[in-house]
Specification:
The complex is a heterodimer. Helices cover 74% and strands 4% of the residues of chain A. Chain A is mostly helical. In chain A, helix 2 (39-56) crosses helix 9, helix 5 (139-161) packs antiparallel against helix 8 (185-211) and helix 9 (219-232) crosses helix 10. By secondary structure, chain B is an alpha/beta fold. Helices cover 43% and strands 18% of the residues of chain B. Chain B contains 12 helices and 14 strands. The chains are: A mainly alpha, B alpha/beta.
């Protein structure tokens, strides 16, 4: 029993990170209206931003969050300017292919600039253990769950209680109508894209802290997991995407606890396929974009 | 302004993609049937296949630096009978598909007389049929899968085979030295890992070593928490990790995060500083086996290590040392050739080479094209590798 609770905790910690990546992804897809393939690289660059902040300024978790958040924010603007803004009125696949190219560009640049080797990630919080229901949980897992919850709450407040959020949601729902209402659609889409990227960047920092290591090629599989989680959430709904991420994390960890660890991705993607067969709109209440 | 920016970005994109491919396009394509390539030009050219980027970049970089060191030394001393050595490095990214693609190009390049590499058994084995058909020697410094060198007569390896290292690990390191009572084995799910695991468990059964868990994972895995939780539930006192340096460090870190007090041993990474850099005090006391370790007492090897450090900016493991030896092996083989230096003549002379002593010890190929090595037991102490000598069967 304790064994399964421990595996559930592992799944929750990993699922929370997937959830944060997926929330970011769904915000990007929601406001821009296009699928992105650079999210994995944005996650990686966020992680590197916090790595350099920890190394050169100080090992403070808030500093890391701020560094990852704003670095990814600017990457988001860069990606938006190159891949989306110019192609707003072009066929959708042009932006999509542009994001694939951008992902390769960022990954290869990162290998040149940061070096191809895996590096040790500084640890901004001390490792301690807390007993919960007889299961030992470490402070890093608590930190992850706490940061993910706070950021999700922050996003919820921005989305529902501020002018910005209302604009974001309006653009997400209908770009033409928003424009007619006097909303600057391009600017709002850019900010929305940056918010999504920033959440991904912070998720990158958490992953690097959790695994105590950082690597330029870490983004590839993570971007795919973020995409899968967001698909489970109907692509554009943040809360449903978060649920998708959590479930993928849990299923992976419970699955590997019964069968071999080599089947980790098999569990994740079989689950994805099954959900899409049974409920094509995912966990979303509305039909996804 | 906007347009200029876009054009610049596009150019940058193309450049980086080209750089990412890592290797220049082959020169004039030659007739594929022409296998009797000769090196009668001013240089003897060898291809170095190594994972310069990707998961095994540390080892690939080591290959690049060490082979160039050997080539520079030979060229500074006048080359091979006056002919200089030239190395062309190809980045196989640790991917068998990439490595096989490079092999096809290399086979068609008449100037290339032999291939040094690739790093992993999976890559070397993927290349074996291509290079064998092309009549080109693949001299791998590190591939240790027992089946590799026997795949065809052009395949050679000087690392020693897993069917000697893994049994050594089981009998001497785990059972006699460590006196492990319950061992959990975690291995990487690729050609090399499967082979090392099979050889280790076979010997463990003969030795009566108690193995309580055997778990594998796929390359590129970073989350070992659920796997470790599972192994932990079988209560081992020792873990045997069959994997490379990055993964050993990831596992050791996650063991510390679980607050699990278990002894760690590692088969495969060699004395890689990357383990210590990535995992720090979490790998204190870790035991591993290696065929070769450089100590200050061995002046020649120490001077070599100094030179390597100044060029590469990191400590050498056994891997660059064996890569260094491969260049001298090819030199020795070419020196023995009477008449024209061809790809085939190199193969023949490598196979027949006798009395070669390299940086890592004597090397004489057996019929299959690989060698048998002796192994040392190392321990990590205060962030350094220390050779264990306190056991009575040290000479074995």
């Amino acid at each position: 029993m304790e064994y399964f609770i421990a595996q559930i905790v592992n799944g929750l910690a990993q699922g929370s990170i997937y959830a944060l990546m997926a929330i970011g992804y769904s915000v990007v897809v929601g406001v821009v209206g296009l699928v992105t393939f650079t999210h994995g690289e944005v996650i990686m660059l966020g992680a590197y931003a916090s790595y350099y902040a920890f190394t050169f300024v100080g090992e403070n978790i808030f500093l890391g969050i701020i560094a990852a958040f704003f670095a990814s924010w600017f990457i988001g603007i860069f990606v938006y300017k190159i891949c989306y803004e110019r192609f707003f009125d072009s066929p959708r696949h042009i932006s999509l292919i542009c994001t694939i190219g951008m992902s390769m560009l960022l990954k290869n640049l990162a290998q040149i600039v940061f070096g191809p080797n895996m590096k040790a990630m500084p640890q901004p919080i001390a490792l301690n253990f807390v007993n919960v229901l007889g299961v030992r949980i470490n402070t890093i897992q608590i930190l992850i769950i706490f940061v993910v919850l706070s950021l999700s709450l922050g996003l919820y407040i921005v989305n529902n209680k501020t002018q910005w959020g209302i604009r974001l949601r309006a653009v997400s729902q209908d770009k033409q109508a928003s424009a007619l209402m006097g909303i600057n659609v391009r600017r709002t889409a850019m900010i929305g894209n940056s918010i999504g990227c920033s959440l991904g960047g912070v998720a990158g920092m958490l992953i690097a802290i959790y695994y105590q290591s950082i690597l330029p090629t870490m983004g590839g599989s993570l971007g795919l997991k973020a995409f899968s989680s967001a698909v489970l959430g109907g692509l554009t709904e943040a809360s449903a995407s978060a649920l998708g991420g959590l479930l993928i994390g849990l299923i992976e960890n419970l699955g590997t606890s019964v069968l071999s660890n080599s089947y980790r991705d098999v569990f994740a993607f079989i689950f994805l396929v099954l959900v899409l067969i049974i409920k094509p709109e995912g966990f979303s209440k509305k039909v996804g974009g | 302004m906007k347009k200029t920016f876009t054009v610049l970005t596009a150019i940058l994109l193309v450049l980086v993609l080209l750089a990412g491919c890592g290797s220049p396009a082959p020169e004039e394509p030659a007739d594929p049937a022409d296998n009797g390539a000769t090196g009668d030009a001013e240089t003897y050219k060898f291809a170095v296949l190594a994972p310069i980027t990707g998961n095994y970049a540390e080892y690939g970089k080591g290959f690049e630096v060490a082979t160039q060191m050997a080539a520079d030394e030979i060229n500074d001393a006048g080359g091979i009978d006056g002919v200089m050595i030239e190395l062309e490095v190809f980045d196989s990214q640790g991917e068998p598909t990439e490595s096989a693609d490079i092999s096809r190009r290399v086979v068609e390049d008449d100037e290339i007389l032999a291939v040094i590499g690739d790093f992993s058994s999976s890559n070397a084995m993927a290349n074996a049929p291509i290079l064998g058909d092309g009549g080109l020697v693949q001299l791998s410094p590190t591939a240790s899968h027992p089946d590799y060198a026997g795949m065809n007569e052009y395949m050679f390896s000087i690392m020693g085979r897993q069917d000697s290292e893994a049994p050594f690990f089981s009998t001497h390191l785990l059972q006699r030295f460590k006196q492990a009572e319950a061992v959990g084995v975690i291995y990487i799910n690729n050609d090399w890992g499967e082979s090392a695991h099979a050889n280790l468990t076979r010997q463990a059964e003969i030795d009566g070593l108690n193995i309580v868990a055997e778990e594998n994972y796929v390359e590129g895995e970073r989350d070992f928490n659920s796997l470790l939780t599972k192994v932990r539930s079988t209560n081992p006192d020792t873990l045997a990790l069959i994997m490379h340096a990055n993964d050993v460090a990831l596992v050791a870190n996650q063991i510390a995060q679980m607050d699990w007090d278990v002894d760690i041993t590692a088969l495969g990474p060699g004395t890689s500083m990357q383990i210590i850099e990535l995992a720090g005090e979490n790998v204190e006391g870790l035991l591993l086996s290696t065929p070769f370790h450089i100590t200050e007492e061995n002046e020649e090897a120490w001077a070599w290590a100094e030179e390597f450090r100044s060029r590469a900016n990191f400590e050498p493991t056994v891997h660059p040392a064996v890569a260094y030896d491969t260049v001298y092996l090819l030199k020795a083989a070419i020196e023995n050739i009477d008449g024209e230096v061809t790809r085939d003549a190199i193969r023949q002379e490598l196979q027949d080479l006798e009395g070669f002593v390299g940086l890592t010890g004597p090397i004489t190929f057996n019929e299959a094209g690989d060698i048998t090595r002796l192994y040392l037991i190392m321990r990590i102490e205060d962030g350094r590798f220390v050779q264990e000598t306190d056991f009575d069967y040290i000479d074995q």
